[in-house]
């Protein structure tokens, strides 16, 4: 069974600005070892961060968006109902709600303050990129 994984914004930003575990998670999706699920709130925040905070050219942001949309097996919108307050951060609660809505197995995050401490929510594990990669390596 291929793991359905939703990456949060910090993982996607890291994947496109540096090598390392976040970029290897994207490579795992390219190789079909992970089924990438995209959430519209994450995609919107990714575009804002790349453009406004990191100064990426609009064309580069469009290329990244197109790559992710092409790579993703599923795309989910913003939940219609306000999410449960779980993490202490309303934006991260939206990520959890998107994961539930999409039926993912894993949310991949580097957020040590809000998401990673939750560990699991409604059967969805919350893993750091390194942990996910270690699991994938052990399955081979």
Describe this protein with a few key phrases.
single chain; 140 residues; alpha/beta; six-stranded mixed beta sheet; 6 strands; 51% helix; globular
General description of the model:
It is a single chain. The chain is an alpha/beta fold and 140 residues long. 51% of the residues lie in helices and 16% in strands. It has a six-stranded mixed sheet, with helices on both faces. Helix 1 (9-17) packs across helix 2, helix 2 packs across helix 6 and helix 3 (40-53) runs antiparallel to helix 4 (58-71). The longest helix is centred in the N-terminal third of the chain and has 14 residues, at 40-53. The two termini are 12 Å apart.
Strand and helix layout:
Elements: E1 3-7, H1 9-17, H2 21-30, E2 34-39, H3 40-53, H4 58-71, E3 74-76, H5 90-102, E4 106-108, E5 120-121, E6 124-127, H6 129-139
Parallel strand pairs: 1-2, 1-4, 2-3, 4-6
Antiparallel strand pairs: 5-6
Helix pairs in contact: 1-2, 1-3, 2-6, 3-4
In short:
By secondary structure, the protein is α/β, with parallel strands linked by helices.
The chain-level mean pLDDT equals 95
Please state how the strands of the largest beta sheet are arranged side by side: 3-2-1-4-6-5
Number of helices: 6
- State the total count of DSSP E strands: 6
State the helical fraction.
40-55%
Strand content: 15-25%
Give unreliable regions as ranges: none
- Biggest sheet: strands, sense, closure? 6 strands, mixed
Beginning-to-end CA distance, first to last residue: 12 Å
What is the structural class? alpha/beta
| Helix-strand topology string | EHHEHHEHEEEH
Shape: globular
Q: Over all CA atoms, what is the radius of gyration?
A: 14 Å
